[in-house]
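User: Continuing from earlier, I have the next pair ready.

Assistant: Great, send them over.

User: Here they are, in order.

Assistant: Folding the first of the pair now:
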Amino acid sequence: MKQIRLVIAEDMEIVRKGLKALITSNPGFEVVGEAVDGHAAVRQAQTANPDVVIMDLSLPRMDGVEAITEIKRRFPRMRILALTGHGKESYLTTAVQAGVDGYMFKHSPSEELFAAIKAVAQGQTYFSREVSSMLAQVCRMGNKNNAPLERLSKRERQVLKLAAKGMTNKDVADAIFVSVKTVEKHKTNLKKKLGLRSSLELAAFCVENGLTDDE
């Protein structure tokens, strides 16, 4: 099985080294670069070409959100997982706006970190249960992105609900018997209709509207 290649962007050495030791203890992962500030994170993203960048948000010189924005500008397909100790909604919303693909806290169990890395590497978005609650709270407080489901066509609702369950574009395409390109087009239309800018914001909308609940 191909290893998932990672860059760790974390300025605190003891945390960075501990995270590296934890990750490399799993044979499915390989750490191919480390960064101690935002500028270094962008450089490592370019030179190491990882599958996933694990990004702390409180980095010197260039903070994590700025680094996420720059990496996404240069390498739109590169996947980024925010791993932070900050619980403020402002950090979450700015990271989402920057284009982060996943968000979780440093106090999360190691098993969840591994699951998050795998999900993000496979093209899915990932946020912990705590983050889901925070995103839902943002929506309840009047986030203008929370548009009504009535705007969507029957097919768009179907795609949205399947995507909310964590299914990849290919999984959704197979489930409703269409091409992956068609699913991507539906998702683009969904974002436009709902006023959303990223897949993570789309996932937040699903949480707020109960689309992730089991049938």
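And the other member of the pair:
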Amino acid sequence: MSPLPATPDTPPVSAPESAAEERSARLAVTLFPLLILAGGAVAVLTPGTFTGMGPWINPLLGIIMFGMGLTLTAPDFALIAKRPVPVVIGVVAQFMIMPILGWLIAAALGLPPALAAGVILVGCCPGGTASNVVAYLAKGDVALSVAMTSVSTLLAPLLTPVLALWLAGQYMPVDAGSMAFSIVQIVLLPVLLGLAVRRFLPSLVARCLPVLPWLSVGAITLVVVAVVSGSAGIIFSAGLLVLVAVILHNGLGYALGYGAARLFRLPTASRRTTAIEVGMQNSGLAAGLARQYLTPEAALPGAIFSIWHNVSGAVLAAYWRRRDARSATATPASPASSQHI
């Protein structure tokens, strides 16, 4: 299996096949939110130190998406032709469930317009490939996870601006055309460039792969620092409300994603993967777009989501693994041995 791709939500991690690789994947999922949480805390305490970082957000996101392209291979896309149904179910659920959930949560909590638009924009973005590592740890279908993330990422230049205009546009103006062009620049072109470099310079890319996790971690930490430093004031006044919105958005995304897969009778591994793909978002992209096209405050939900969904994903994966372990020790006749979520 090819390495798991890198996005603003996780460093690239090769599909783990040994105990050492599994420990590495767990470390990535655990350490990454701690690093960006530390960066965010520093930005809150000394916001003036980082006020000049705003223009660097989009280039940093482009670098990370280039890293994603470097880690993708032809088999990742071949799965789409071999097993189109679960891929389509996951991608449709991604772009239906999360945007509408964001809109409903913003309305239910009575969020201010900028924060409401930011929550909705997180829901309109494609899946983040932290989901690929979490799908592995949860004993999900990793190949399906990579395929879903790749397809949703490639569809983002079209669907993200349209959905944002429809839902977030109720709270503040959204320039969908300019946003689409930015997503092409930030996401699509870097991914395609990475794919081309991997295709024509595979030996060079193989030597660079070990460095990509640290590049991605550093880049997304800087993105979060830039976003938080521009929103330090609102963090103290509405930070708890935003956290509640993020937790609801992420958790309900898991539940409804799993339910959608179960409705179509996908196997357990695919249900887990779909839940993770729907619940985990490319929130770094959301933060960057919000800061550029909405307001600095609107970028705050994306920054907080970047931290939270890594934590919740690791917890969900641990729960499923423990459940499987209990099922494995049950007798064959026990219901627990044949039924689990």
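Worth noting for the second one:
The chain has 14 helices and no strands. The longest helix spans residues 232-263.
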